[in-house]
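dumping this here before i forget
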Amino acid sequence: MSAFVGKYAEELIKNAKCIATPGKGILAADESTGTIGKRLASINVENIESNRQALRELLFTSPSALSFLSGVILFEETLYQKTSDGKPFVDVLNDNDVIPGIKVDKGTVDIAGTNGETTTQGFDSLGARCAQYYKAGARFAKWRAVLKIGPNEPSELSIQQNAQGLARYAIICQENGLVPIVEPEILTDGSHDIKKCAAATEAVLAAVYKALNDHHVLLEGTLLKPNMVTPGSDSPKVAPEVIAEYTVTALRRTVPPAVPGIVFLSGGQSEEEATVNLNAMNKLEVLKPWTLSFSFGRALQKSTLKVWGGKKEEVENAQAAFLGRCKANSDATLGNYTGGTGGDMAAQSLYEKGYKY
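structure:
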């Protein structure tokens, strides 16, 4: 049987294509309460609802920055929040032609009998939650599967569990009008070389697209959020051009042209590294049937957070830093980034071992 074509098919295709607009990308502002707490703690700001709201308002009302974004992924709390003037965040985004999205997974759990490999939970009442989020204004969703590289990892069990999970999530989203972002993240933890990462990425993506096909997912109404193919965190770094070549090759071998866009996660790279690597991919002169863009969290927000520091008087400066990163990544999606935005602060590594979202 071919893809499932339900009542939302045309809308899903239109929204996925819109999010994949060249020159635009996604801000991942869907950190859970615990994760955002760590970010706020790094600038000595208390993790309370009003501070979480203030940070998100700073980002969403940043003058001109939204013109470089096509989507923003929200956490459930944020989907229902408003600006200090009482305007719902969803309306702020829609008024700026930015599509609101929602994180729908409930984190990872260990797969028994494996060496710390995980699968993602969140299927309980997923359909009902998606319907509720659609009613609240969300038009796309995100679900993060996490895999790792080791002597015998990712195992076939882990690959199949996560591929099937992503496919089941994707079809449930589409039944309820949400474009699913399919995110199989292979962590950078380890001392492996780039070739091992490339092999693992190809194996995982091949399994994911087989599962999506088996579940009758409408690929034209989906987006892929993969890791870039890089050496492990404990290995020597390689040039952006090498990362670009290995990453695009892995994608060309596994991702069908029906998929409108690929939005990379930053995976703990510094802000500048993530942008430079994305730019190198878009400069590659090979056939790329999908838009190559970004869905960055840390790599769009880190400098902004530091400049803000929880102080009202720094909001304007923080928004200027955020605009700089959005513009840099927009340029990178077109292969036009010349480097240097954000200076030393943007060059700081954002790597965290075993990163939990």
